[in-house]
Design the sequence.
């Protein structure tokens, strides 16, 4: 019978981690690579019998490859601490690895912003490849926005997982600045480029991708995406 390793990286995730780990408790093992949490993250991991490792920070891609290297099961499912596997997806994952057709599978995400579901804009209609056979996939070494590259054909699961992206405006702003600083490294930027690229990002998210249909939530998402793009080019 096929076995499943769930892998994730953490730092101070005591708010989101319990719900995340509860949703993947069906897995055969849970691997957590932590970057020096000072909250109750280690205790929460222990409660769910996760294998917990403390490592230095190398960037999102390298860090996730590190967690992958510690997994021992036939299949890998990568999840972030702010994501939750729905019950139907949990059942589908178990059925899929028991009788697989592909080497990897994409999964849709239903993203929330401060508790409100995001249906449109840059955060809507999101698909990510997260389930793959061990030995057939690995993460790119990108410092941010890493991807899983699978050797072989990939498919798509029907059910979704929930992505609780940000819990508050303050949280959103902190993440936006952090990610913009990472993206700015090695990039040629200027104030004019920041304004133009940021304006385009807002227009794309709010108008072209129908973010306005999400009302105030769609406006704030487009605004934050635009601000992040602006900072990415002005931090350079």
Sequence:
């Amino acid at each position: 019978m096929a076995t499943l390793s769930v892998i994730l990286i953490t730092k101070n995730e005591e708010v989101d981690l319990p719900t995340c780990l509860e949703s993947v408790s069906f897995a055969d093992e849970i691997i957590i690579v932590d970057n020096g949490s000072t909250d109750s993250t280690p205790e929460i991991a222990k409660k769910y019998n996760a294998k917990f490792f403390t490592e230095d920070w190398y960037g999102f891609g390298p860090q996730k490859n590190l967690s992958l290297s510690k997994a021992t099961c036939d299949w890998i499912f990568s999840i972030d601490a702010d994501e939750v596997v729905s019950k139907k997806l949990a059942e589908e994952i178990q059925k899929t690895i028991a009788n697989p057709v592909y080497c990897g599978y994409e999964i849709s995400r239903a993203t929330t912003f401060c508790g409100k579901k995001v249906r449109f804009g840059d955060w809507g209609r999101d698909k990510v490849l997260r389930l793959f056979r061990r030995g057939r996939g690995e993460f790119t070494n990108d410092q941010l926005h890493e991807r899983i590259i699978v050797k072989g054909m990939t498919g798509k699961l029907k059910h979704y997982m929930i992505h609780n992206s940000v819990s508050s405006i303050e949280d959103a702003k902190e993440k936006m600045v952090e990610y913009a600083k990472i993206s700015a490294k090695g990039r040629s930027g200027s104030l004019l480029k920041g304004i133009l690229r940021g304006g385009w990002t807002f227009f794309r998210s709010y108008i072209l991708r129908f973010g306005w249909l999400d009302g105030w939530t769609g406006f704030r998402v487009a605004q934050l995406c635009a601000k992040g793009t602006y900072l990415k080019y002005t931090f350079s």
